[in-house]
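Go through this:
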Amino acid sequence: MPCLAQDRERALKIINKARSEGRDSLTEIEAKEVFECYGLPVTPTRLARNEDEAVALARENWLPGCDENSITRYSPQIRCGRGAG
């Protein structure tokens, strides 16, 4: 859900949620939401729920020749998704 410019309350809610889960960093998606709260431009990000969705999204929207090795993994426990296993 996009934030309105200067939406400090929403930004703090995102940060506090991560802290309450014991994390000391935000996921890429959370960080982009916080940036949006302060009116900063961010690149579009889509979250697939499984490998098939990820490959389909990549082929449809960005990378016509992609395969499962071209996808960035998303996990709150993994700070850098590429090559995560």
In short: Residues 1-45 form one domain. The radius of gyration is 14 Å. The chain has two domains: 1-45, 46-85. The chain has a mean pLDDT of 76.
